[in-house]
Amino acid sequence: MLHTKNNVKDDEDDPFEMVVSGLEVGAIQEDYYPIALVTSRGKVECRYYPVDGAKCGAIYVGGVGGGWDTPAKGLYPQLCQELTGEAIASLRVRFRHPTILAESVLDVLAGISYLESEGIDTVALIGHSFGGAVVIQAAFLSQAVRSIVTLASQSYGAAPASQLAPRCSILLIHGKRDKVLSPSCSQYIYSLSREPKHLILYDGADHGLDEVAEEVHQEVRQWIVEKLKESLEIKASSDGAKNNV
Fold it and tell me: Whole-prediction pTM value?
């Protein structure tokens, strides 16, 4: 049984606690398993794309629309399917309360705990819009996170981006014609962040990034694969050095 505890603070600086005490797994649906993480704050619904023996994993979240929201013309399910070929397991997380930042951060932390229970200790987080701030905060709170990707992120709640390096790299993507969240949001987060970091602004792209879906797909896929593999190599080198002491 999965059992873990995660704590975050809300805007009033009060502690939020979530205890993950169990797991419900449904029948396989095409290439993923529907799972529910049973927690003290309700069930967190997920879609899990497993890889036998994987040490790396990626978690994907949407925005305030909730559900299985995905930007860039189905980016998330495409990546989940493709990255299995790179020995990277994927988990899509559905927010219980997609307008409450602290609750949504807890959902992602619960997802990280699940991946860790599967033997995955090197994680990338990908978030769109509101989800960008969520993954930044979750990365700050979890040492397992080695890279994050934000897509058309909001800037509210993103202050912890200044404290992620050098453990965690960040890729920020935004459309210059975003009418929901100005590209200045991602520019601001970039200014807060330290290396390794990268910012891409697309001409003609709106909030959903559908206009540049192919380019976004290539950039995000390459970033996740490269950064997770780099993290594995660093970890292996560090472990080897410790063993030789």
Answer: 0.94
